[in-house]
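User: Hi! I'm working on a homework problem where we have to compare a predicted structure to a textbook description. Could you give me the structure for the chain below?
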Amino acid sequence: MAAIDRFFRILLESDGSDLHLMEGQPPKMRIHGHLAPVADESVLTNEIMKDLLEPICPSEDWQQYIEIHDLDFAYEMPGEARFRANYYRQHHGMAAVFRLIPFKIDSLDDLGAPPILRAWSKERSGLYLVTGPTGSGKSTTLAAFINEMNNFEKRYIVTLEEPVEFVHTRQQSFFCQREVGRDTPSFAEGLRDAGRMDCDVILVGELRDYETIGLALSAATMGKLVLGTLHTNSAVKTIDRIVDVFPADEQWKARNMLADTLGGVCAQVLLRTADGKGRVAAHEILVRTQGLSTAIRDGNISQIRNMIQSGRGIGMQLLDDSIAALLEAEVISPEEAYMKSQDKSRFEYTVEEEDASVSDISSG
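Assistant: Happy to help. Predicted structure tokens:
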């Protein structure tokens, strides 16, 4: 057993999502969105950090970390849990963060995902994106999406990840999961390879640059079903981000390709539940329509928000509408709704009402 496994078991027992280790500080865990110290643990020294971090990665990976101060990989405690690891450097020395990857892949229903995601899993071509800030559950949603496909569709699915997170076992579909840096040099090179692999579905762990985004659009244009993530917090910003990554003289081409291939966007955020015992996702959903394709092609991105508002009948919804529904159902607090909303003015009154209620109780 590796020395660090002790901390991972504490994380699991505490229902935490992330373990943070930093030289010069005590270890910390993120539990339901809150960061807190691990009880009864002292400050981590350089020697302790080395004893925790070095044994769980191959020697060549450790040498990479020593030389360039950055390393991403996955670590598994057989039969217990799997973790996405990121080693980095900070002012006081070594540091690492570990994200828990459950062995059991939740279903779309388990996650409370919008029903339209199930319909998207039956599509045969196009570009479908799950977006949101870091830690918003994008990988978990995509894993559930792929799991839905695996249960009901006979597909050949290629995933490109850094590192491989959720490990899929064959049900109806056949998998080739490739890790960037080990099985392929880059997301871009992996996409080029996937085009020659006679696959049906390509999952790209992160669409992060011009080359990768361009190749993903090209694959979707050629009839592949392409899934990916972006660090954007709304459907409109997702489209802006994709177009803006291209040089100015190629943006017309990007708009045309995106107009032809974009099938849908699911932008999501995680909110703490009102009881403090968990987190729940709110979603913004954009669905392909003829009007959407025209707006993208013509560069009229400002129209898309209105399209979402008027498209509820086909499954579209604004993020703030999803947040409002969670608030109305008392799943989240008014303060949490306000903090995670895009239009703060919409939720100001609920926070004021909550503050007034607390004041009345206190004075009583």
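For your comparison, note the following. The mean pLDDT is 93. The chain is about 40% helix and 25% strand. Good luck with the assignment!
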